[in-house]
Design goal:
Blueprint (H helix, E strand, L loop, with lengths): L1 H30 L3 H7 L8 E2 L6 E2 L8 E6 L15 E6 L5 E7 L15 H8 L4 E4 L4 H8 L5 E3 L9 E2 L9 E2 L2 H11 L21 E2 L2 E5 L7 E6 L4 E5 L2 E2 L10 E2 L1 E6 L2 E3 L6 E3 L5 E7 L2 E10 L2 E6 L2 E2 L7 E6 L5 E3 L1
Parallel strand pairs: 3-6, 4-23, 6-7, 16-23
Antiparallel strand pairs: 1-2, 3-5, 4-5, 8-9, 10-20, 11-12, 11-24, 12-13, 13-14, 13-15, 16-19, 17-18, 19-20, 20-21, 21-22
């Protein structure tokens, strides 16, 4: 009898131990969910498509580089220039006589060398302010001096940094030999307590209806009868390749040609304001112009929208093709020919 009772006890303990192990196993399984469940709880990775605000081109991260506008010399002795091929936008506008100056706006790319840098004019400062850009110049007209000293914009002037942030190229004669690097522009911003990182409002980039656009693969902008004041663009099937004074417009250091997706020509009223020949240019009233894209031309109206000169047609805004843009400003559209 005792033997039978002993065997029953052993059997009961054995069965209870198996049950406990199964219960513990079930608890552990509930406490440790499958790997697939853990993976579902992890944040999903998605490709975020960022674009540069002034070219519309893709970038792998959000850009917070402040726009920088540099006054570039365009006198024949200053050619070829340095760093123009990396500018997102370039304005070409008359200064004195039939000589133009260039306002190169950088955001997506930062050249090692930029120049030759030339003196400020007030209307270039206003164009720079349309992008809240840090304005870089070497010298100034009386009107530009008053404007800049009033605090109208952040600026770095070679008059105060010649031989430090700016350097002179001994192979060229002054005033056609002042240069600066993007790194030194940054140092200049730091010295003056200027913000160098900020979000830049993008230009309008979208495809326009070119159904009724006129074919235009060659563009000539004639600022005077002198050959050095002639600008030509030739469409190569993708971009407009630029030349000036009969010579290709290239980067001095790399020989990279200037080739852009948009050529925007505007007509604006010019007025001589002093004996030196300085000008006042009306960039506020709007007017007529041409927009060249993809080997075509459209007659447009331009408007000043928060300091930016933008194309419109029948009151409707037009878009830019993704890429770089050169804006040619002329006193009269008769100075522009295309075919």
């Amino acid at each position: 009898m005792r033997r039978l009772f002993f065997l029953l006890m052993i059997t009961t303990v054995f069965l209870l131990s198996i049950g406990c192990q199964r219960t513990e196993s079930n608890i552990k399984e509930k406490e440790s969910p499958p790997t697939t469940v853990e993976q579902k709880n992890e944040p999903e990775t998605k490709d975020i498509a960022w674009t540069f605000p002034l070219t519309g081109m893709p970038t792998d991260e959000k850009t917070m580089q402040r726009a920088v506008a540099v006054m570039i010399n365009n006198y024949p002795a200053a050619r070829p220039q340095s760093g123009l091929h990396k500018a997102d936008i370039v304005y070409e506008v008359l200064a004195e006589g039939d000589i133009t100056r260039l306002l190169a706006i950088y955001q997506s790319e930062q050249p090692d060398i930029i120049g030759p840098v030339r003196s400020a004019r007030d209307y270039f400062v206003h164009l720079s302010n349309g992008f809240h850009a840090l304005y870089v110049c070497h010298g100034w007209s009386p009107e530009a001096q008053t404007l800049l000293k009033s605090g109208a914009t952040d600026y770095v002037n070679g008059l105060f940094y010649d031989g430090t942030l700016f350097w002179r190229d001994r192979t060229r004669k002054a005033p056609h030999n002042s240069y600066i690097s993007f790194e030194n522009i940054k140092k200049g911003a730091e010295k003056n307590g200027y913000v160098f990182e900020e979000e830049v409002k993008p230009l309008p980039f979208f495809t326009n209806d070119l159904t009724n656009a006129i074919k235009a693969t060659n563009i000539d902008v004639v600022y005077s009868k002198r050959s050095y004041a002639h600008v030509h663009y030739a469409y190569d099937g993708t971009k407009y390749v630029r030349s000036s004074g009969g010579e290709p417009t290239v980067d001095r250091e790399t020989r990279t040609p200037i080739a852009v997706e948009n050529v925007f020509v505007i007509e604006a009223t010019h007025e001589i304001i002093d004996d030196y020949g300085r000008r006042e240019i009306d960039f506020t009233s709007g007017g007529k112009g041409y927009l060249f894209q993809k080997g075509t031309v459209q007659e447009i109206q331009w408007k000043n929208v928060d300091g930016r000169l933008l194309p419109y047609k029948n009151g409707v805004p037009l878009g830019f093709i993704k890429g770089k843009t050169w804006i040619q400003v002329v006193p009269d559209l008769k100075q522009v020919q295309y075919e």
